[in-house]
Amino acid sequence: MDISTIVGTLLGIATVVLLMLMDGHLSIYVSDHAAIVIFGGATASTMIRFPFSSIMHGLPMGMRFALQLRPLDPRALIEEITKVADIMRKSGPMALENHQVEDPFLAQGIRYVVDGYDAEFIKDTMEKDRDTFLAHLDEGQKIYRAIGDCAPAWGMVGTLLGMVGMFANMDDPSKLGPFMATALLATLYGALIANLFCLPIADKLHLKLEEEDLSRSLIIDGVLQIRQAKSSGIIREMLLSYLPEHHKAHFAEAEAAA
Fold first, then answer.
1. 248 CB-contact burial (10 Å; exposed 0-12 / middle 13-18 / buried 19+)
2. pLDDT digits over 181-190, tens only?
3. Packing angle between helix 119-168 and helix 104-114, nearest 10 degrees?
4. Which of 45, 103, 214, 252 is in Cβ range 3.0-4.6 Å of 150 for a Cys bridge?
């Protein structure tokens, strides 16, 4: 469970609700006309941009990964891979059958090594799995970003419609207030949906995509080196190239302390 997503969302909602309560009561911020403009318009725009199957797949997957963003530590992955390499060198591939690893993608690669698949098959299969997973993440990111981009624009449409209705009924003062409220609330709804939900989720999915790309590429190279029975020291040095400089420094400090 990704705590920052949950805490940030709840904090944003609490901030908006608190400000609404300070100005009066929540009912004055409810407008069915504004909701129809925003949700109907954003849904229509998204359906025009993307195939329906992509929307039905990308929306729940994006929400799931935004809420269940597992932390990825490349240094821990390197340590785990070098441990597996040691077992492979000392006891052979069959000794890996009972070795449990936390990362499912690494576990898949180890299973291929234990089953005796050749390096080319392992490389092709794991790269396809990585690319498919990243494509799905990218699809979800694009859908949430599209909603975040069009929601404020539909808020402006709602504002314009409300102003048209207001000016068309200038002779009836009782209708000016509701039309003005619709005009302003449509903009508010669009801004909240974009900036509190959709765009933050899209950015988090983009971050997740970059992290998964790095970690899965690291795992693929590590598994291929294990398949070739390379020493753990060689594998460690090769995989360290995936780390940014500050991670390499921490890695060196940990080794020196050990």
1. middle
2. 888 999 999 9
3. 160
4. 45
